[in-house]
Write a structure and sequence with these properties.
It is a single chain. The chain has helices spanning 33-47, 68-78, 90-93, 97-109, 126-159, 173-181, 186-193, 197-213, and strands at 17-24, 50-58, 84-87, 113-116, 121-122. It has 214 residues and is α/β, with parallel strands linked by helices. The radius of gyration is 28 Å and the shape is elongated. Strands 2-1-3-4-5 form a five-stranded mixed sheet, sandwiched between helices. Strand 1, helix 1 and strand 2 (50-58) form a beta-alpha-beta unit.
Length: 214
């Protein structure tokens, strides 16, 4: 039985509104998003769902979290304009487990269901909810693993005596002082010396502090 929403003032359940999402990485090589949208639309018809809108990102990699039609769909999701999101496969929605799980968590918070047709994952069912929980655990483990690798790399670099962070620029403090004394603005001094305004200010403050302590 398909997901149904019943209004308290009406005994007849209204049709579920579905957002259909499709994506292909390239516009060449035989890839065609119309195959995905056709099968997804037919799936919605079999479930008795009405298609609210179709969102198609042609020529966008699944590794990118930001895509024009995906972003539009997420805005519509926050506006609660549909009840379920359906895609052809997980990798059509995202190739990143962490991104997929963040999206699923958003849908869950908005009370929007998610269906991946090929994998037959449907969060309206107990099995689909279990898969969602497993994916969440995998994503958390992935984030922890990446964080630990970064920390290990930093510890290893420090142990080898490497200096971390951006390399420091040599600042000609006397030139800053001379330019400033001639009435040159801080911004112009920074542009002339190829530095940021903040760096110029910091160098001038350090020079004044050293003069006072001398």
């Amino acid at each position: 039985m398909g997901l149904q929403i019943v209004k308290s003032s009406d005994s007849n359940p209204r049709k579920i509104l579905a957002a259909v999402y499709a994506r292909v990485s390239t516009l060449h090589g035989g890839q065609d998003s119309s195959m995905q949208t056709r099968e997804l639309t037919e799936y919605c018809q079999r479930r008795g769902w009405a298609v609210y809108d179709t969102y198609v990102d042609d020529g966008f990699s699944g590794k990118k979290d930001s895509r024009p039609q995906l972003n539009r769909m997420m805005r519509d999701a926050h506006a609660r304009r549909f009840d379920v999101v359906i895609c052809w496969r997980f990798d059509r929605f995202s190739r990143s487990v962490s991104h997929l799980c963040r999206a699923l968590e958003t849908f869950h918070a908005l009370d929007i269901q998610f269906v991946s047709m090929i994998e037959q994952v449907d969060t309206t069912t107990p099995t689909g909810k279990l898969v969602f929980t497993i994916l969440g655990a995998v994503a958390e483990g992935e984030r922890n693993l990446i964080a630990e690798r970064v920390r290990s790399g930093l510890r290893n670099a420090r142990a080898k005596g490497k200096i971390l962070g951006r390399p420091k620029k040599d600042v000609d403090v006397s030139r800053i002082k001379t330019l400033r004394a001639s009435g040159t603005s801080w911004r112009k001094i920074a542009n002339t010396m190829g530095l940021s305004v903040g760096t110029v200010h910091a160098a001038a403050r350090t020079q004044r502090h050293e003069s006072l302590c001398a």
